[in-house]
Task: inverse folding
């Protein structure tokens, strides 16, 4: 996935090759020198395509379209200046070639930003010219034969080789590779700067000159004198002399959220406006500098650690915001330790950037979500490079041991399975890519083929016309998911509980279709690979918080519950009690008498449900028993057993469970019971 980051950073500067060495793909192969220019080739084709289409959309000259493109770019990061330098140096040849009806592929091969070495296939995005490729390329070369551009050495050009920029380039490169903030005065791994691994990625530091002050730590002396954990709560209440931290946070079980992920977790996103000429305007590139300094990721909007409102009006909140909503003492306690191209293989290179002190900090919920790169790579034969189940087991155990040595007692770790990516080709291959929508000439099948040919595809296995290869990739993904599942079921650790979750992608698609959406809308339109931010149901499904029970079905279930609530009837007394409990009322006529004694913990809820004073009938009065059903059902609390046994026609077990997971805070105790019921005590239990 890191290859896409390289392509888009090269694109604005592709002719200067300024960022070609800023990062290497996770699957780089030094034995493939003939494809060392792959990212530059893609960047060149992308930019030349935009220039050509801008001229077409605005009915202008090529020179005017280049000027227009540069005028759209912001001054930050010298993007506008660099663009004009590109025009000055290479514009004349680009104008000549485009004016001669040469497409972007021909232009970039002529200028040698794309190369076809002997014995290698021809890599092209657009349909081949009507005349033979060799004849067309020779014709193009004659047009620019006397150009000084062809004498320009591209082999070692790198803006970071300039002495004045060498040190800062090295520091930025180190920050990206190690996943630590570029600006961190006290070296506590937290920053007051947003990008370059700053507080877009982890909680904002509130004192960058004191390494003992950072988000997620237990308060120092109840934060009487300073805000040691950066949650905004400190000082003493003058009315009673009690520290605010003690008054608001003691006993509330604060905990942080940490994501170990790849580009999907980092929320990789390329705006379609950046490459779509018909949508391009002065406002299109406002966020480009921020995106580039965040590696084209948007962790501040991610489904796990996002803390800003969505740019497209999504109402669903991230796990961090849900934690914060339930307990404001969790303010700023989030870490997104994700990287483009990350996998179980290379996580050890940057897991040290995780900040948690087992003695000084609060427990944390850690989500391990490497959902692609153990089966995804860009090699011509991707299967041998995929992680084997045996290697995955070794990598995961190494990661879990590291977590056990750093996480405070009482933490939780969730291993997330891999999806079935055959969805990509099946739903996108015959659709037009944004670059092909204007002239109906580039589909996602063309894009996938182009990237695979250059060996820079984020996932050759799934982004391929070869059905056998796609099937093999999915089979390996399933094997790896099963390995994660076995680890979660068999391994125990002293400082955290371990759980597993499936990536229920097909269920997510079905839910999206129920809402009137099309499956292809769930994927980023530019790269044709990553989850799309606009499709909130995908993010919620990834985190097991999607509500697969639609409003109509839930109304049906609610009506059925109310219709069967005859509290005088012993056969429905348990249901009446259940509704009272989740509504915050007393358990029974002989139970707690006031709101102050309402149910606040799972053990107290169980005691309430098992009270013989009218809340739980004796075993003999129900065919399925006082403790639930027969056999395994005996382990299920009767309240929920009855709810499932007597569910209305058309309401599935999974629907009820999904609804339980989506219940709000006041229904959390019912949620806990639902989770116990299905043996998946996961996030809802942690968040109570």
Result:
């Amino acid at each position: 996935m890191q290859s896409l980051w390289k392509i888009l950073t090269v694109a604005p500067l592709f002719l200067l090759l300024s960022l070609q060495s800023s990062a290497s793909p996770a699957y780089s192969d030094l034995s493939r020198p003939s494809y060392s220019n792959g990212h530059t080739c893609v960047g060149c084709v992308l930019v030349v395509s935009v220039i050509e289409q801008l001229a077409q959309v605005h009915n202008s000259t090529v020179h005017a379209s280049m000027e227009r493109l540069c005028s759209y770019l912001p001054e930050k990061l010298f993007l506008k200046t660099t663009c004009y330098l590109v025009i000055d140096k290479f514009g004349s040849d680009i104008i000549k070639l485009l004016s001669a009806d040469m497409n972007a592929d021909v232009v970039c091969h002529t200028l040698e930003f794309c190369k076809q070495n002997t014995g290698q296939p021809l890599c092209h995005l657009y349909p081949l010219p009507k005349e033979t490729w060799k004849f067309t390329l020779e014709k193009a070369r004659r047009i620019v034969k006397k150009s000084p551009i062809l004498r320009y050495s591209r082999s070692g050009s790198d803006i970071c080789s300039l002495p004045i920029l060498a040190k800062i380039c090295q520091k930025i490169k180190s920050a990206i590779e190690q996943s630590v903030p570029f600006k961190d005065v006290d070296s506590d791994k937290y920053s007051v700067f947003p990008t370059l691994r700053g507080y877009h990625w982890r909680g904002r530091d509130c004192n960058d000159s004191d390494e003992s002050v950072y988000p997620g730590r237990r308060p120092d002396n109840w934060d009487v004198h300073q805000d040691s954990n950066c949650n905004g709560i400190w000082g003493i209440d003058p009315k009673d002399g009690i520290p605010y931290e003690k008054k608001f946070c003691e006993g509330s079980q604060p905990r942080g959220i940490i994501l170990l992920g790849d580009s999907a977790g980092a929320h990789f996103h390329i705006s379609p406006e950046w490459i779509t000429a018909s949508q391009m305007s002065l406002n299109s590139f406002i966020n480009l500098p921020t995106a580039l300094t965040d590696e084209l990721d948007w962790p501040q909007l991610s489904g796990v650690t996002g803390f800003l409102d969505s740019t497209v009006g999504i109402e669903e909140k991230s796990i961090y915001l849900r934690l914060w909503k339930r307990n404001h003492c969790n303010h700023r306690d989030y870490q997104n330790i994700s990287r483009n191209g990350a996998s179980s293989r290379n996580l050890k290179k940057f897991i040290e950037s995780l900040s948690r002190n087992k003695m000084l900090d609060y427990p944390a919920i850690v989500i391990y979500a490497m959902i692609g790169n153990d089966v995804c790579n860009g090699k011509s034969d991707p299967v041998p490079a995929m992680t084997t189940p045996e290697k995955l087991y070794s990598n995961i155990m190494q990661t879990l041991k590291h977590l056990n040595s750093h996480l405070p007692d009482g933490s939780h770790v969730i291993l997330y399975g891999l999806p079935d990516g055959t969805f990509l080709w099946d739903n996108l291959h015959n659709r037009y890519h944004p670059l092909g929508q204007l002239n109906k000439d580039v589909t996602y099948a063309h894009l996938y083929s182009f990237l695979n040919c250059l060996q820079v595809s984020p996932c050759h296995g799934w982004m391929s016309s070869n059905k056998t290869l796609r099937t093999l990739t999915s089979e390996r993904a399933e094997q790896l998911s099963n390995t994660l599942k076995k680890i979660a079921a068999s391994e125990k650790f002293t400082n955290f509980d371990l759980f597993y979750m499936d990536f229920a992608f097909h269920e997510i698609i079905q839910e999206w279709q129920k809402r009137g959406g099309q499956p292809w809308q769930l994927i980023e339109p530019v790269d044709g690979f990553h989850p799309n931010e606009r499709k909130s149901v995908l993010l919620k499904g990834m985190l097991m918080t999607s509500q697969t029970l639609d409003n109509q079905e839930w109304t049906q279930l609610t009506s059925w519950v109310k219709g069967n609530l005859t509290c005088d009837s012993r056969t429905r007394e348990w249901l009446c009690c259940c509704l009272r409990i989740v509504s915050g009322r007393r358990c029974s006529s002989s139970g707690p008498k006031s709101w102050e004694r309402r149910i606040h913990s799972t053990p107290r809820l169980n005691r309430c449900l098992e009270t013989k004073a009218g809340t739980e009938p004796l075993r003999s009065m129900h065919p399925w028993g006082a403790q639930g059903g027969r056999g395994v059902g005996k382990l299920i609390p009767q309240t929920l057993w009855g709810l499932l046994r007597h569910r209305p026609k058309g309401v599935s077990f999974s629907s009820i469970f999904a609804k339980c997971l989506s219940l709000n805070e006041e229904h959390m105790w019912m949620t806990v019971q639902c989770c116990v019921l299905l043996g998946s005590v996961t996030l809802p239990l942690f968040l109570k």
